[in-house]
From TrEMBL:
Residues 35-254 form the Solute-binding protein family 3/N-terminal domain. Residues 1-23 form the signal peptide. It comes from Photorhabdus thracensis. SUPFAM superfamilies: Periplasmic binding protein-like II. This is Amino acid ABC transporter substrate-binding protein. Pfam families: SBP_bac_3. It is found in: Cell envelope.
Amino acid sequence: MKIIFTLLLASTVQFGLVHSANAESTLDKIQSTGIFRIATEGAYPPFTYRDASGSLTGFDVDIGREIAHRLNVKPTFIEGKWDGLIAGLDAGRSDAVINQIAITPERQKKYDFSIPYITSQAVLITNKNNNSIKTFSDLKGKTSAHTLTNNFAQIARNNGAEIIGTNGFSQEIELVSTGRADATINDSLSYLDYKKHKPNAPVKIVASDPNAGQTAILLRQGESELKTAIDKAIVDIKADGTYQRIWAQYFGDNTPK
């Protein structure tokens, strides 16, 4: 009986070692299926949104498509609310998140990031008739509209604001425009794109954060092969002029960051 148990145990250990050695990495799976699953919000212009025809588009979407092209696979975009994008990555429903994810120390404890592909600046936005908020410190005791887990919400919390939860940038601006929130903080490029399409919107920038944030592609920890492949794709996209072409499409002739 002892001999049989020992043989079974040895077989189990050997099977486990073989299975571990043959386990597919995420990059292997992407290449074998030919599909790169990208989680994105689809509601955050000009980075990821639906255009007038209903097609998914945006700066981040085009970057994702180009990365997939460099990996010789096709992208599949999995849309969802901001607060569910990272949970979907955790659950294995996506291979990466491309949605203006800022690199923060808290996120680096749990996730890996690609090299940065854009540098952006946070701006404080209020109603045009609001003269009580002029700096970030003026948010103390005020309300600020945000999706609950993004880095802009954390900036507001750090300055003493009460957070009003939203589904995305459009709702945040709407709450500020109608006076249901005192302020919001967001990416300067998103604000400029919004004002380009709605120049008469009753909102204004009252302050900007001098510390620019770096945005990168969010990956599960331990995906070193996938990170290396994505990093190379980003470098190549910038080197051959593709990045500059995509940038100009959404942000004009401003120097890409």
